[in-house]
Amino acid sequence: MEAPVTDKTIETFESIEELSRCAAELFTAETELAVARHGRFSVALSGGSTPGQLYCLLSTEKYRMRIDWERVHIFWTDERCVPPNHPDSNFKLASDLLLSKLSLPNSNIHRIPGELSEEKAALAYEKDLLCFFSPSVIPRFDLIFLGVGQDGHTASIFPGTIAADTSAGLAIPVHANKLGWHRVTLSYAVLNCAATVAFLVAGKAKASVVRDILEGKNQILPASRVHPERGRTLWFLDRDAASLLKNRNI
Ligand code: 6PG
User: Fold this and answer.
1) N or C: which end of the chain has fewer CB within 10 A?
2) Domains in the chain: how many in total?
3) Each residue's pLDDT tens digit, 160-172
4) How far apart are CA 141 and CA 131, in angstroms?
């Protein structure tokens, strides 16, 4: 039975450590559910600084033993067009903190080839998505982790870019030479097809954008437009990021 259409669920935590522990428990629970339901678990990881503690936690003995990693397929929500060993690479972030500690089969790691141009990398990633999920439907991830920038971007869907104005395509090239952006991002179509999307947001600097997204009138910010029709959207906030919300439960 597919998840009913639900609105956003907001969970607030005293600290990013507590937020990360809950996110690790979510990852574990969703893996168990997905493997029981369809024999594998597909998850898309985001970049940035917030998910780092989650990735470290998942690499610890506790989670290494609890999760059936052979059934886990790792994707990314977006990537910068840099080599996989570049300090800006989202692949490198997850590889250093998590994947290097596991013995996942290479076929379970679906890297966005950031060493290519954004156009070629998007095409290659889209091919991988269609091959893994199905050539005829929009990929439905079991779980997608997302962050939010102070400008309201999520993944690499930035305000005012083509990716922000289209729900076409699966993997979209993002370029803004003036800002040095050469990236690839999952599209709204894929983000909004997920069974579960979990935003992980921490820090005082995000308080106003979190308020605008969760309680604001203007739902035009990219992160505002991510809410799967047939899934659930979780917002995991630390105390600081939730500090401007009227309805916060801490
Ligand atoms: C990226 C991320 C991006 C990130 C936000 C929040 O490639 O940079 O996917 O969307 O999630 O910018 O980043 P922080 O977690 O560092 O605040």
Assistant:
1) N
2) 1
3) 888 878 777 999 9
4) 14
Measure 37 CA to ligand 1 centroid, in angstroms.
31
C-alpha angle 84/25/187, rounded to 5°?
45
Residue 128 counted as domain residue = yes
CATH number of the domain residue 121 falls in:
3.40.50.1360
Pocket test for ligand 1, best of 19, 46, 197 (most atoms within 8 A of CB): 46
Q: Identify whether 52 is part of a domain.
A: yes
Query: What percent of the chain clears pLDDT 70, i.e. is strictly above it?
Result: 96
**Residues having CB within 6 Å of any atom of ligand 1:** 46-50, 77-78, 90, 147-149, 153-156
pTM of the complete model = 0.95
What is the C-alpha to C-alpha distance for residues 238 and 19, in angstroms, rounded to an integer? Answer: 6
The residue whose C-alpha atom lies closest to atom 8 belonging to ligand 1 is 48
pLDDT attached to residue 21? 98
Q: Which of 49, 76, 78 to mutate to test the pocket of ligand 1 (most atoms within 8 A of CB)?
A: 78
The residue to mutate among 49, 111, 154, 226, having the most atoms of ligand 1 within 8 angstroms of its beta carbon, is: 154
> Is 67 inside a domain boundary?
yes
- Asked, for residue 5, whether it belongs to a domain, the answer is no
pLDDT for 74: 98
Residue 87 — pLDDT band, cuts 50, 70, 90? very high
Closest to 189 in 3D by CA, of 174, 167, 157, 171: 167
Asked if 232 and 9 touch (Cβ cutoff 8 Å), the reply is yes
Domain that holds residue 121: 12-202+228-238
